[in-house]
Design a protein that fits this description.
Largest sheet: 9 strands, mixed
CATH superfamily: MM3350-like
Number of strands: 9
Number of helices: 3
Number of domains: 1
Structural class: alpha+beta
CATH class: Alpha Beta
Order of helices and strands: EEEHEEEHEEHE
Distance between the termini: 51 Å
Low-confidence stretches: none
Strand content: 25-35%
Helix content: 10-25%
Mean pLDDT: 92
């Protein structure tokens, strides 16, 4: 198979009001045809998000916002539909852009398109239906800051 899939490094840099250092991260492979919605779903899965009821958006270097086409949220802003826009048509090697999950807790991710394209069979095995993480590092914080079953996210251990 040809080396046509992008590699995108995603670092979780902040959330819940603070910087995350060192930043945990993942490297994803994304094929031509995968949408930003599929990429968001892959990021959320790889960063252990279980409550997916929150809004999210990508902001490209040119300022375009890609997310839910929801006129009730920030109606003065122009949002491009994440289900329709394809990742590989909008970003190129070397590009950096941002992904934010949950506008309240503001989980910010720095995304960097790596230079080398890859063959998904060599990197992953069976061809995945959506974008997938192929490498990762760091500790993933709980979405709500919880550390045990009955923790409310702000309890002392």
């Amino acid at each position: 198979m040809a080396r046509t899939w992008l590699q995108i490094k995603v670092d979780l840099v902040s959330g819940r009001g603070g910087r995350i250092e060192p930043s945990p991260g993942r490297i994803f492979i994304v094929k031509p045809g995968h949408s930003f919605q599929q990429f968001a779903d892959a990021i959320n899965a790889a960063f252990a998000r279980w409550d997916l009821s929150h809004l999210h958006n990508f902001e490209l270097t040119d300022g375009r916002l890609i997310g839910y086409p929801d006129d009730s949220f920030a109606p003065d802003m122009v949002w491009l539909d994440h289900a329709k826009l394809k990742v590989t048509r909008e970003v190129r090697a070397g590009d950096e852009f941002e992904y934010v999950f949950d506008f309240g807790d503001n989980w910010q991710h720095q995304c960097t398109v790596l230079e080398e394209k890859v063959d998904p069979v060599e990197e992953y095995g069976p061809i995945p239906a959506g974008p997938v993480a192929i490498w990762g590092w760091g500790s993933i914080p709980d979405q709500y800051g919880r550390r045990w079953l009955d923790d409310e996210g702000d309890d002392e251990p």
